[in-house]
Amino acid sequence: QVQLQESGGGSVQSGGSLRLSCAHSQYTYIMAWFRQAPGKEREGVAAIYDMDGHTIYADSVKGRFTISRDRAKNALYLQMNSLEPEDTAIYYCAARASEIAQWQALERSRYSSWGQGTQVTVSS
Q1: Cys-Cys crosslink for 118: which of 4, 9, 41, 68, Cβ 3.0 to 4.6 Å?
Q2: pLDDT in tens, 7-48
């Protein structure tokens, strides 16, 4: 299993920005960011294929969030801009070693390796 550790969460006002980081022990086929708000299901936010860097985003974050990776540093990032109170959640880094179709890339059940999560709070 891939070891994952998130960092970079915090509190910010509406309209602000945060960058999350995920340190990982090895590269896998695809990595993703998920989030879980209180009382809600964990949902996929963004994913990136390691081979070609192709990215996929949930509609709710398109144009505001950017997922990226630094292969030299074994790091995954999520740049979050124009944050809204609805973005408040625990954010998780996830990894999958085997091939997956794009339409499955934001499905929680497709990932077997997870970090502990980092809290993001956006106040209005």
Answers
A1: 9
A2: 999 999 999 999 999 999 987 899 999 999 999 999 999 999
